Amino acid sequence: MTAPSTLSLTMVHLRYQFLETVRIPIAVIGNMLFPALALFFFVVPQEAIARDAVIATTSVASLGLFAIISASMFTHGVGVAEDRAQPFDPYVRALPAGPVPRMVGRVGNGALFGLLGLLPLVVIGWLFTDATVTAPRLLAGLGVAVVAAVPFVLLGMAVGFGMPAKAALAAVQVILFPLAFAGGLFMPPELFPDWMATFSELLPTRAGRDLLVGAVTGAEVYALAWPVLLAWTALFTALAVVAYRRDEGRRFR
Description:
By secondary structure, this protein is an all-alpha fold.
């Protein structure tokens, strides 16, 4: 009998985690609803913003990045912590397939729900604002959004492997919303005081936001955006690895 491949095992984990999530509809609805409501209530009623194609597109892109980051943080932070609390988890982690199929399946599940979170934003932006984007820029934007989500996937894993479920939920919320506000996902950085605008350029949310806006609108991106995003990715990779190894050492020694 042939052993299942890594790809087939990954698809099994992806399907299982997807079904596990959709069985709690509020988990899906919440991720899709908050960014869409923010766009509908804070952007659509303001004619100066909604009827300016560049500003409207920037608003949709910023909130779209928040939706993806939120899905990444909750899926890999709270989701991993909840899995660790299950009695079945030590058995799954001890299987000879190793951690790769399960982790890749979780990353794919987070990406899937992040993309689902974009759908209501795109529909509202299309119907109620003058936001517009060409097909090449849309594809470039999706690529940038995926790359910008990577450090938050890793940060979520660091939280999930380092904390119990209740603490992980609080930690994700405490980390996510200040980073989103300071990174210009809810308010344009142009409205920040000078000191805050300078400080925000050092944050992964601001770097990801500006890179995504630049991809979909052609706006100029500050020079440190890529280095900042890559530096945070390296830092969060180290944190995730340390948290995973500490959890392995505590539970399987």
